[in-house]
Amino acid sequence: MPNPNYYNKLLIALFGGVILIACINLSLGSVNIPIPDILKSLFNYKVENESWRYIILEYRLPKVLTAILTGSGLAVSGLLMQTLFRNPLAGPYVLGLSSGASLGVALIIMGAGLFGGVTGAVLLSKWSLVIASSIGSLLVLLAVLLASAKLRDTMAILIIGLMFASLTAAVVSVLSYFSSAAQLQQYVFWSFGSLGNLSWNDVIILSLFWITGIIVAIFCIKNLNTLLLGEQYARSLGVSISKNRLLIIISTSLLAGSITAFAGPIAFVGLAVPHLVRQIIPVNDHRILLPAVIMGGAILMLICDTAAQLPGSEFTLPINAITSLIGAPVVIWLLIRKRKFLF
Amino acid sequence: MALIGVNGVGKSTLLRSLSGIQDSLNGKILINGLQKNKLNSLELSTLISVVLTEQPISKNLSVYELIALGRQPYTNWIGTLSEEDKTHINQAIELVNISSLQHKKCYELSDGQLQKTLIARALAQNTPLVILDEPTTHLDIYHQAHVLKLLKDLTQRTNKSILFATHEINLALQLCDKIILMEKDKVSIGTPLELIEKDAFTNLFPTDLIIFDRSSQTFKINT
């Protein structure tokens, strides 16, 4: 075992990486703003062009923070799910969170036609989407929680989550079959995910959920380590499996639920980041793994967001596609290079 | 102390009920005169430690980390190891004689080494009773004898009680202080000699295939 200082240095290096990429991300965008002016607007000095300050403070900075919050939050919930289910394929979506959110949003956008035109016009604001996806994930989550309270076997929860996902996907496809092209487009755009739609208020709300979720996760660390031995050993070490399971699910849903509500269903990060981190730092102690995954998730999301803006152009690509385009080859490459699947 | 019985007679169920992994089906369990269902799971985990047939699922743990997890009932809310914890861990490593392995990862170990590591983890839990469910499966006959001998030495050196289920009756007869023989409708307890004298083994298995040979004190194929 390398000494603890090694891990501390590594975590500090990762943190430095987050800051560095955040700065690069801030400096890039469709409008070219010189770096000194970026710093000036951040630290409240006089800027040559007032609209630059507006772009930095009201658009780019919230987006950077959103990228950090979503990346790290999804990565942590992925880590929690993988350890809880002892399954390397688990991610935040296994609890049916994003499928519930998709259903909620699909009902609002595409169901508007079915429920009459009145709701349609009134409800299609940003907040209605946030609320719809929150309610959707909450309902699916409650169903999964009810099922998990009745079950002793953790694996069954995994399967139930997947069943809910396929149920809601079916309802969504029925809805899309009956909806107009415009509605369909709006739904598809939502499902691309987006980091740029958040105002400062939204970022503050999201970070409150994030902080609560992370704090709950921190209190799970000890039991997560015990779960590495398997549930039966954990029980023999005095861990209450069902209580611990509930805490982990609460933390995951706070993190992934709020992120899905604000940024749409971003699938890949939660699954991939824990694997990426384990390949780079071959450690299974969650006291090191958790902070490393937080920063790894933030870094991956910032890189993806930077790439999504296509530096130097006016286009912004859907973030959901970029995370997979960048992340998947990296995971594949790391697995092949190390030839060892660490889990 | 060995727990012996044919497949499906309920050895594992008994051990799992004792160690609190599953709720007991019926009746009362007393541990050192305390009623088990009045203890909370944390108190129970300082009385009984286990080695199960199920292998720890994460092989990415190092031997030292795995043994350190045996200290979970004693560590603080985030699991920091105190000096006392480290002493117990090092003692456990020394007792089963695996100090050369302690920095290896679990996926690098042979089945025998892994079993010793798991035994060390149970020792680090520092409980008066250690329960093992078939600790010798997957091992060759040398390592079977080695593990059982190790367990016997441990009872003498650490003053712990060790209870294990096994199908290695021949080895158990030679190495155990006491044997619990579980049959469908009765349970006999005694030293190996007492049980042999009571003819307890004769009808353990259907005699058309396996018979107990009293002169050599082993089971043989009925030819």
From TrEMBL, chain A:
InterPro entries assigned: ABC_BtuC-like, ABC_transptr_permease_BtuC
TM annotation in the entry: 64-81, 93-115, 127-149, 156-178, 198-225, 246-268, 288-308, 315-336
Topology with respect to the bilayer: Multi-pass membrane protein
Subcellular location: Cell membrane
UniProtKB keywords: Cell membrane, Membrane, Transmembrane, Transmembrane helix, Transport
Protein family per UniProt: Belongs to the binding-protein-dependent transport system permease family. FecCD subfamily.
Descriptive protein name: Iron ABC transporter permease
Species, as recorded: Gillisia lutea
Lineage of source species: Bacteria, Pseudomonadati, Bacteroidota, Flavobacteriia, Flavobacteriales
